[in-house]
Write a structure and sequence with these properties.
By secondary structure, this protein is of the alpha/beta class. The chain has one domain: Aldolase class I (TIM Barrel, Alpha-Beta Barrel), CATH 3.20.20. The chain has helices at residues 63-71, 91-99, 133-138, 151-159, 176-189, 199-203, and strands at residues 11-21, 31-37, 59-62, 77-81, 103-108, 120-123, 141-146, 166-171, 194-195. A nine-stranded mixed beta sheet has the order 3-1-2-4-5-6-7-8-9. It starts with 10 loop residues before the first strand and ends with a helix.
Length: 206
């Protein structure tokens, strides 16, 4: 995927952008403007944004145009997601957003060095492309997707490399009814973890 990493720091491969509510993790329910970048080298089987994997289906969009769209909403928080946003140089985007008074959040698997200035880093580690330790150390929250009980060991391995961030366990949506009881029991025995549910899917929010 190296050929998808942009050298042009003033544009990014935009899959979609929209104003909505955060549906997961620490900021569940918070209004935010979402910038979804295309291109991914993690490609999880359970991904709910597979349409963003193919960078060729995105629109190479100037950062100024992206921020202009943000400024037409009441959003004070911008969440950059993907795909895998850490593939790209996000410093110009963050700089322009901050110049306009916006808080910058990122959702990432953390498998590339992070660029940009972030007010909140949500790191969701994936077994097939593990995060860099330096990114785990920077994480504000660790959000581990649980498909089956064996994933708890993977969650603990990553949590051990963080530096006091919030720790979330989130059921994979296609099996959420099956795994939620396991997660609840696990959290009751390992109280450093918090349950994260995909509120936007329950509420029918984009």
């Amino acid at each position: 995927m190296n050929d998808t990493i942009l050298n042009d720091t003033v544009s990014l491969p935009l899959a979609e952008s929209f104003y909505s509510l955060q549906g997961e993790g620490c900021h569940n329910g918070k209004a935010a403007f979402f910038i979804r970048l295309a291109g991914c080298d993690v490609c999880c089987s359970f991904c709910d944004s597979k349409t963003a994997w193919n960078v060729k289906r995105s629109v190479n969009t100037p950062v100024t145009q992206i921020v202009d769209k943000v400024m037409k909403t009441a959003a004070d928080t911008v969440i950059v997601t993907g795909g895998e946003p850490s593939m790209y140089n996000l410093q110009p985007l963050c700089r322009l957003l901050k110049e306009n008074g916006k808080a910058c959040f990122i959702e990432t698997a953390g498998n590339h060095p992070l660029t940009g200035e972030w007010d909140w880093i949500c790191l969701s580690p994936k077994l097939n492309s593990p995060p860099l330790v330096e990114n785990l150390r920077q994480a504000s929250e660790l959000k581990v997707v649980i498909q089956h009980p064996a994933d708890f060991e993977w969650a603990e391995e990553n949590a051990a490399m963080t530096s006091g961030c919030l720790l979330f366990l989130q059921p994979e949506w296609s099996v959420h009814e099956t795994v939620i009881p396991y997660i609840i029991d696990y959290i009751k025995q390992h109280t450093h973890w918090i349950l994260s549910l995909q509120m936007h899917k329950y509420a029918g929010i984009e």
